């Protein structure tokens, strides 16, 4: 069992339940025991105010709305995060292009590598 | 004072030019005036290419009146609000004809924007000297709007395709998570893909603007109306209500999972069972809420499942997560009951 995420608290912001299911099972395979899932920006912002996270995965498009408000909150709190998206990187606003990007559909290896890099910094 | 005098001298010179132009060209002027293609002639012998003729189509394209443009330099008239590099492109057209007509972003007199491609061709006198330029325009505004709309649709399509592929990935991963026969795995993947596809059909028929709850129930439960040659018994009661596309898709998956479970273990696994689907709409200060109840009756005595699979995850966790509601799935001996309580108009921070 991979223990990359053992003891780490992960925030997942993803509005599609079946996609969330995949992320959760991939995170579980990486040894993650603590996943908090938000479906909307409002929920995610509430979680960032009440809980502490080591790393976050943020879907760029939440039911047609872009999730930059959550990205800004995570930056302010110093929580490393990656965007997840079905778009190429040109779907991301210039200001956030330096953030790592996890493409849909997800590859477990890419997820492990990106989360590993985020946690190492 | 002197500048006004000068201006009026310029003006009368220009008007004389226009008059002689009309007389010289006779029937061609009539044709140029009548055509729908915006066109002008400019004087090549004066600086800044003053306009000596403009047809009605040009005036309606640019929003100017004839006296605004006659005698005015073409370049300075068109330069209003146009980027300097674009002006350089326009000016180059008067010097040498480019291979492709430039597509240029202009402003009308009122400041609104339009796109046009520009064809400039020199008119020479008998000595071969360029005396005028003929300039015609093709209005590309609608074309550019269509292009932008197309790009938006393609972006949206890409987003949906990638999300759908991620959803399929989920279905496959979950089907392979527990040991089962090839047949079982295949059936579990196929039936879920067909369920997704049916809800997609329903939304497509409604132009992806959502669906009525009655149509959704009919659509999602259609494969369960007849099981093994026997008509099954759904009793559906509730006031019809429009649902957002997202709610439609999520509920469709939940109904599919509930019905699949009913066929395997619940009310549709014997001869007598019925499934009652009923709902009410509550109108509160924060918008409408849907209270939906799935209740199985007269099936075999229910035994709570020993392990929770895809179906119960989707219903208990997924649905509540995605639709920001509360969902309860219980297994009393007399029949499975699922209650779903979700907001119908989402009030989120970013909406």
Structure, described:
The complex is a heterodimer of chains A (121) and B (351). Chain A has 4 helices and 7 strands, in the order βαβαβββαββα. Chain A is α/β, with parallel strands linked by helices and 121 residues long. Chain A has a single domain, classed as Rossmann fold. In chain A, the strands form 2 sheets. Chain A has a 5-stranded parallel sheet, with helices on both faces. Chain A is globular, with a radius of gyration of 13 Å. Chain A starts with 8 loop residues before the first strand and ends with a helix. Chain B is of the alpha+beta class and 351 residues long. Chain B has 2 domains: 2-139, Beta-Lactamase; 144-343, Histidine kinase-like ATPase, C-terminal domain (Heat Shock Protein 90). A 5-stranded antiparallel sheet of chain B has the order 2-1-5-4-3, with helices on both faces. A 5-stranded mixed sheet of chain B has the order 9-11-12-14-13, covered by helices on one side. In chain B, helix 9 packs parallel to helix 10 (245-264). The longest helix of chain B is centred in the middle third of the chain and has 35 residues, at 141-175. At the A-B interface, helix 1, helix 2 and strand 4 of A face helix 7, helix 10 and helix 11 of B.
What are its keywords?
heterodimer, A: 121 residues, alpha/beta, Rossmann fold, five-stranded parallel β-sheet, two-stranded antiparallel ribbon, B: 351 residues, alpha+beta, Beta-Lactamase, Heat Shock Protein 90, five-stranded antiparallel β-sheet, five-stranded mixed β-sheet, 11 helices, 14 strands, 46% helix, 23% strand, rod-shaped, disordered N terminus
Q: Briefly note the CATH topology name of the largest domain in chain B.
A: Heat Shock Protein 90
CATH homologous superfamily descriptor of chain A: Response regulator
CATH H-level superfamily of the largest domain in chain B: Histidine kinase-like ATPase, C-terminal domain
Query: Please, how many domains of chain B?
Result: 2
Cα-to-Cα separation, first versus last residue of chain B: 59 Å
Strand order of the largest sheet of chain B: 2-1-5-4-3
Query: Main beta sheet of chain B, described?
Result: 5 strands, antiparallel
Structural class of chain B: alpha+beta
CATH first level of the largest domain in chain B? Alpha Beta
């Amino acid at each position: 069992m991979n223990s990359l995420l053992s003891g780490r608290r992960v925030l997942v912001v993803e509005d599609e339940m079946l996609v969330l299911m995949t992320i959760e099972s991939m995170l579980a395979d990486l040894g993650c025991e603590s996943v908090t899932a938000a479906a909307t920006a409002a929920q995610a912002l509430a979680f960032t105010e009440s809980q502490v996270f080591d790393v976050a995965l943020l879907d760029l498009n939440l039911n047609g709305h872009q999730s930059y408000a959550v990205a800004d909150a995570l930056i302010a709190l110093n929580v490393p995060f990656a965007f997840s998206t079905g778009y190429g990187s040109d779907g991301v606003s210039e200001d956030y292009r330096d953030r790592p990007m996890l493409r849909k559909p997800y590859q477990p290896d890419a997820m492990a590598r990106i989360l590993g890099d985020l946690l190492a910094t | 004072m002197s500048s006004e005098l000068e201006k009026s001298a310029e003006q009368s010179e220009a008007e004389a030019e226009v008059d002689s132009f009309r007389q010289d060209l006779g029937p061609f002027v009539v044709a140029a005036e009548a055509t729908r293609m915006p066109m002008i002639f400019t004087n090549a012998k004066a600086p800044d290419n003053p306009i000596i003729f403009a047809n009605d189509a040009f005036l309606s394209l640019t929003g100017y009146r004839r006296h605004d443009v006659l005698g005015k330099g073409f370049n300075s008239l068109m330069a209003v609000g146009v980027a300097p590099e674009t002006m350089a492109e326009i000016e180059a057209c008067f010097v040498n004809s480019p291979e492709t007509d430039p597509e240029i972003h202009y402003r009308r007199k009122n400041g609104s924007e339009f796109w046009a491609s520009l064809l400039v061709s020199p008119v020479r006198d008998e000595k071969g000297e360029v005396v005028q330029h003929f300039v015609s325009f093709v209005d590309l505004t609608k074309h550019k709007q269509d292009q932008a709309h197309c790009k938006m649709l393609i972006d949206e399509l890409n987003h949906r395709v990638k999300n759908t592929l991620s959803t399929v990935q989920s279905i496959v991963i979950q089907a392979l998570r527990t040991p089962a026969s090839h047949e079982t795995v295949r059936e579990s993947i196929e039936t879920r893909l067909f369920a997704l596809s049916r809800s997609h059909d329903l939304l497509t028929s409604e132009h992806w603007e959502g669906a009525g709850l009655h149509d959704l129930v009919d659509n999602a439960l259609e494969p369960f109306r007849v099981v093994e040659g026997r008509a099954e018994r759904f009793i559906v009661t509730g006031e019809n209500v429009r649902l957002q596309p997202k709610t439609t898709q999520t509920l469709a998956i939940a109904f599919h999972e509930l019905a699949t479970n009913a066929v395997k273990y619940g009310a549709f696994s014997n001869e007598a069972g019925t499934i009652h689907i009923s709902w009410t709409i509550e109108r509160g200060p924060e918008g409408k809420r849907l209270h939906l109840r799935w209740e199985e009756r007269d099936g075999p005595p229910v035994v709570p499942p020993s392990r929770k699979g895809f179906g119960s995850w989707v219903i208990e966790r997924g649905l509540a997560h995605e639709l920001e509601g509360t969902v309860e799935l219980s297994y009393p001996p007399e029949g499975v009951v699922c209650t779903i309580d979700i907001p119908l108009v989402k009030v989120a921070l970013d909406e």
